[in-house]
Amino acid sequence: MSKRKLNAHDVPEASEPSSPSAPAEHEEPKRQSAKPAENSTFSSFGLEPRLLQGIQKQKWSTPTTVQEKVIPLALEGKDILARSGTGTGKTAAYLLPILDKILRRTEKRVTSSLILVPTKELALQVSRLAGRLAAFCGQDVRIQNLAGKESDVVQKAKLAELPDIVVATPARAAANIGALSLKTLATLVIDEGDLILGYGFKDDLETVSQNMPKGVQIFLMSATLSTDVEAVQALFCRDPVILKLDDLEKDAKLVKQYVIPCSEPDKFLLAYSLFKLQLIRGKTIVFVGDVDRSYRLKLFLEQFAIKSCVLNSELPLASRLDIVEQFNKNVYNILIASDETELLGSMTKDTEESRPRKKAKKDDGKSDSGVSRGIDFRDVSCVVNFDLPAGQKAYFHRIGRTARAGKSGTAISFMIPKDQYRKHKPTTFAGSEHDEEVLKKIEKHQQPGQKIEDWSFDMKRLEPFRYRFADALRAVTRIAVREARIKEIRMELTKSQKLSRYFEENPEELEHLRHDQTLNHPARIQPHLKHVPDYLLPGGRKPQDIGFVALDKPKRRFVKGKAGKKVVKGRNGKIDPLKTFNARGKGKK
Q1: pTM of the full structure
Q2: What residue stretches are annotated with the Helicase C-terminal domain (predicted)?
Q3: Residues 277-297 pLDDT 10s
Q4: Between the CA of residue 408 and those of 59, 104, 256, 325, what are the distances in Å?
Q5: Domains defined along the chain, listed by start
Q6: Handedness of CA 207, 208, 212, 218 (dihedral sign)
């Protein structure tokens, strides 16, 4: 293989043509500089004009670092192993070269690209972005997502139409070998390579590798270069170009991390204070320990008219994606996420994937966070760890949702000291027992220049709010939480497109579900909690004198009773015996 050098624009330049499928066996992998090129634009890559229109519609002004490095090498046909942080544009970095090659080919329509991702949510996210980039390409680019819940018959029928790009989990791809023709495959992408093996897809990857022709261009994209990535690389790549790209402006992107030691009920008081007093601004993701906690916190915040949405594993896949989309569109500024590994991991358990597998590694609590990997959250200014995760790895993935694309961010964690654990059973969370040990591990694994600071929050200043907070927290009972969970699932069922035909044939079933939606809220709403009186605010401002306000009391009707006694009737027409007595005493007038 001929050596390549960088030109004046920091783009690899070939001295003579060479085949990417025949690399020299003893040649060292070439490492490219992570330094971005100056004045780089998408048009400088020589992409097909219709793709530039799609890029313009996405309102992307300049390519990110990973796009600057990956796209030119991909257009040359290189195998690429790229490590780049979340939110740096890895998906577009491999989609644009794939779409460009499809638009420029002259042969008949074939399935030329296969994109493997670990979860259904990522598959839908990738296929949607590909569709948006190819919005001006008409029928020249056809994309098929195999990670949905269609039947095998429907999927095989769609594959028979030979879509240009197929997006799937490894299990779906392996199960459809035959209907999914790999003989004409030109490009294979393995996205989130550090998660693929962690979700138990090793056997499926081997099946794909055995049925794949030689000379296929490989993209292996990952947020880390772990041993799992090396195992995937050994299966598919011989001599890839390795790009170790750190996040843009790393020093400027350091997340400001704070920890607040507090008691168990004070977590709810702090959450109320942060949002109601606007101590934090912008879009916020609040991570809690389980589904029950997510609804408990949501119902608590609703007592104070604080809007939020819940993201957890109980909701259908389409509902979760819709919630993320609403959050990204600023419909909600607070998203409460139950941080469970099965939130994304369970999405890989399809009906055809129930065959026996090798035992996965034992979950030691340090596995990747469910919500914090794979889902694209935009413009998150703050992450609140309402409940600390079980390990430091999940913590760093959580806070990676903020401070993306060169923007700053804040992470606030509530920590329960051991002497405060189980002091208030209604708000106790079992995972908080080891908060102190987890915090020590997090501090130990901090990168240079990063640290967790104590937020010197004076809890005494929140004492005036305690009676309001306690009243609202008491209203969120276990029964209220259970009813809220059931009610939301029923609401999502009525919105499900897959059930629309069933409801058309059985309208009475839909009426039963709708009847439950009109019930009163499971937690008692108290209107007076919506507003914060000035005298409760820190600083002790006194309420302003707005003058005399007359009380709107109902007029009393006086009726002569027996023996000429005065009788008072209320608004309902009934006699009020307590108001018929003579206040001056018997016989006095």
Answers
A1: 0.61
A2: 254-463
A3: 888 888 999 999 888 899 999
A4: 21, 40, 8, 22
A5: 26-244 (3.40.50.300), 256-344+369-476+523-536 (3.40.50.300), 552-589 (no CATH)
A6: negative
